[in-house]
Request: fold
Amino acid sequence: ETGVTQTPRHLVMGMTNKKSLKCEQHLGHNAMYWYKQSAKKPLELMFVYNFKEQTENNSVPSRFSPECPNSSHLFLHLHTLQPEDSALYLCASSQADRENYGYTFGSGTRLTVV
Amino acid sequence: DAKTTQPNSMESNEEEPVHLPCNHSTISGTDYIHWYRQLPSQGPEYVIHGLTSNVNNRMASLAIAEDRKSSTLILHRATLRDAAVYYCIIYNQGGKLIFGQGTELSVKP
Reply:
């Protein structure tokens, strides 16, 4: 257990479904992130939240919708996904603007779109 | 963000030291050097970071060149559980953790 908890660990969804991924941290961090990792590819940063405010959206399609209700929780709402969206989705947290501070990652949600 | 160059893969024998190199010739004075590793089917795990001086912790050591254009992550005695992808990342204030391809380390018994 890393201190960042992601649920569910595995998710299979149809292209017309709506689902949500959840991330929770109680490390006292004030920044949270969503990353996507497709097979055999590096992690891609999707969204950044600092102090609950979204500060970055790296050209992510609108079928992915993040939500950060407080500094401890982060959601990724999914709707009308495509098979190519199948990937490992990773959440991380850190202290914002502290370059001498590491990120803590969750174990990820393995998403399969059928 | 400064770019890093790492070998795609390396092999090591169990119980032997491993030196994982990273080049970052465009690093600026306030950039930190971070290392993470990702074990199979898991999220990345923080390993170590440094600015100018060499650093040691329970997981590894980080040796930073005097001109800071390269660094080496040292695992003193590799175990089978150290088999992972190791990422060298240059991180600065206001920046984000941007991952490259990393080095895939395999450890032979």
